[in-house]
Design goal:
mainly alpha, two-stranded parallel ribbon, 2 strands
């Protein structure tokens, strides 16, 4: 009887070891690029237009800080530094938008949400 139990135990160990080697599924957080571009057009571009572009600061004709905020790819590439500047205390070194009030929490949230989005290209 003991031999049968040991044999059965030896047969079950490899099976249980295989079950533990299954990799967990990783959730894909990327979205379709058209969704990202629509979010940019609807939420991000108006903020930049009202606070950075209409004042002639970051346009294709006036590249303050070598930054054109009228172009989607330029914004997406430089968004980490943009977020740093707009989140500084008003009046502190590098604060943006220069000479204007701090962006609203809703605008800052929109910029941050956009920075967290990735798309399948």
């Amino acid at each position: 009887m003991k031999k049968i139990f040991n044999l059965l135990l030896l047969c079950l160990i490899p099976i249980s070891a295989c079950v533990k080697n299954i990799e967990p599924e990783i959730e894909d957080s990327t979205v379709d690029c058209s969704i990202l571009e629509t979010y940019y057009t609807d939420h991000v571009a108006p903020i930049l237009l009202a606070n950075c572009i209409n004042y002639g600061c970051h346009t294709s004709t006036n590249l303050s800080g070598q930054l054109d905020l009228s172009i989607y790819t330029s914004v997406k590439t430089r968004l980490p530094s943009i977020l740093d500047l707009v989140n500084r205390e008003q009046g502190s070194f590098g604060f943006m938008p220069m000479g204007k009030p701090k962006l609203s929490d809703a605008n800052l949230d929109s910029l941050y949400s956009f920075s967290q989005m990735e798309c399948d290209e």
